[in-house]
Amino acid sequence: MTAERVYLSTTIPYVNSRAHLGHALELVQADVLARHHRRIGDEVRLQSGTDDNSLKNVLAAAAAGISTRELVNRNASAFAALREQLSLSFDDFIRTSSDPRHRPGVERLWRACQASGDLYRANYQGLYCVGCEQFYSDAELDGGICPDHGTPPQLVHEENWFFRLSKYAGQLHDLISSGTLRIEPAARRNEVLGFIASGLTDFSASRSVDRARGWGIGVPGDPGQVIYVWWDALGNYITSLNFGARGAERADYRRWWTDADRRVHVVGKGVLRFHAVYWPAILLSAGQPVPTEIYVHDYLTVDGKKISKSARGGAADATDPVALASAYGIDALRWWLLREVPRAGDTDFTVDKLIARANEDLANGLGNLISRVGSIAHSYRNGVVQPCRRPHGTSRWLAAGTDGGPGGSPQHGPAPEWPADAGPLQTAVQLAPGAVSAALARYDFRAGTAAVWEIVEQANKYVEATAPWNLAKAERAGEGLASRRLDEVLGALVAASRAVAAELWPFLPDLAAKVAAACSDVGGALPAPHPVFPRIGPARSAASRAEGQYPAVAAGEAGRQQVSEVV
Ligand SMILES: [Zn+2]
Fold first, then answer.
1. Ligand 1 centre and the CA of 483: distance in Å?
2. Ligand 1 center to residue 56 CA distance, Å?
3. What is the DSSP string of 346-415?
4. Hey, which end of the chain has fewer CB within 10 Å, N or C?
5. Are 276 and 294 in contact (CB under 8 A)?
């Protein structure tokens, strides 16, 4: 397959508070896609950012008794810091209130739609939920209450600019039903098609400066009006590419939007309508290409409850991804998000589930495998192992000098073939890259991690089946065949471990690097074994967690136990 140019984005959250676990889910999913595409040789740009111009930010700042600018700066910085705190790899981070690329881009988008005759002034009266930044019809409200926020909307009456959304119903239907704009999962595509079929009405694309409390981007040529915050926020996907610039300065826009093979938005189900209807319609009106894909994730609940601002606060907060990552590690947090959250349907998070999943998979499954392989290699071979050859068509293995491809290594000559009894393990290694690619093409992160895990499981089974410690005994007893057999078993296990590191990398880049280092050839031998993922100590009660006490991390006890068992 030839390399593609892939532009990936997360949504830009409003910053009236800090990030919660739901933001982490979206960021990690997008990061996995970006890393996967980079490692298969695609050109990738991953973007995130913050929506600073929401009225919600103004209200939160007023409640906190600080300026809007101060609140926005503080919280936007906290979102940007997630890059290190969650091992994310975004290439760009746009802040809509301060990035010099944003305003000219939004203004240009506005003028382009105006030139198409799609913006007009009209009187409007409607029920507006500030929490959603959205007008609601009576039918959409729940007994007069916002279904999302449980609060009554405000009655708003003013003259606004309107966008002629109704004009684009036919084109939107055709783009989406033909798959030119692909919406995944299919249920979400059907939801959008149903919404379009029910009749699109024009939407208010501005509000009065008074109602916006002077915050936001002014309507070009109309000083009394501020551009609707959703219009402004959606624009970020192209303003960051210098859509508002002229000539050569607009190269990013051509490269990553007009000429990209894929323009992919990762979004939550709550903002589907904005991304799948409003945004493509604005682009059509402006004469610009629409996104090629929208992947829609569902929501997380925490301890059975919806994540809400009121339930949050303090270091012990199980909705705080930074607290969770610092207590249990980035790998454990990412692994739960990727291994447990299905492609469709809400998922309940608890700290106990995170710990159980990390201990079962990362400490027992993978950590134990790597400890055993290192320990066997050092106990019986002083760390000198000739890994079996990398099967054709599989991803290159991580770390220089660790690629057991046809060339072998200078120290050891050509890489050996896989032993005849390692068939299921070799097959798992061979199939994993294709299975990971196929799963991620469907945005099925659970299936992707499962394909990596098949190698880990087969490798652990192979250790049990071949019992290398018995081969070592037989070798010491002078059984001639046992020596060669032990070499080939170790060769298969080290090769499989390297394959795990390569396939795990998009999901858990930090742990993958540790695994790769543990089975790298350094000066002709593997490094001395040490646990790559220490077991997380027993979970304390929910009550003690609420007081801010996270379970301690036991420093590699389980890993060491398992090592001593085999030698
Ligand atoms: Zn609402």
1. 70
2. 11
3. -EEE-HHHHHHHIIIIIIIIIIHHHHHHHHHHHHHHTT---PPPPPTTSPPPSSTT---STT-BTTTBSP
4. N
5. yes
CA of 301 to the centre of ligand 1 (A): 18
Bridge partners (DSSP) listed for residue 293: 182, 264
**What whole-number distance in Å separates Cα of residue 418 and Cα of residue 221?**
71
Residue 357 structure tokens: 């999943």
How does strand 293-297 pair with strand 182-184? parallel
Residue 349 alpha carbon to ligand 1 centre in Å? 24
Asked if 347 and 301 touch (Cβ cutoff 8 Å), the reply is yes
Q: Which residues contact 231 (CB under 8 A, 6 or more apart)?
A: 106, 109, 110, 163, 205, 278, 282
What pTM did the predictor assign? 0.91
pLDDT tens per residue, range 130-153: 888 888 988 889 999 998 889 999
Q: What are the residues facing 536 on neighbouring strands?
A: 553
CA of 309 to the centre of ligand 1 (A): 13
pLDDT at 253 over 80: yes
Q: What does DSSP assign to residue 254?
A: I
Distance CA 566, CA 561 (A): 9
Collapsing DSSP to helix, strand or coil, 157 comes out as: strand
Strand partners, 305: 302
Ligand 1 centroid–CA 59 distance in Å is 14
Q: Which helix (H) or strand (E) holds 171?
A: helix 169-177
d(CA 190, CA 566) in angstroms, rounded, equals 54
Strands (E), 408-558: none
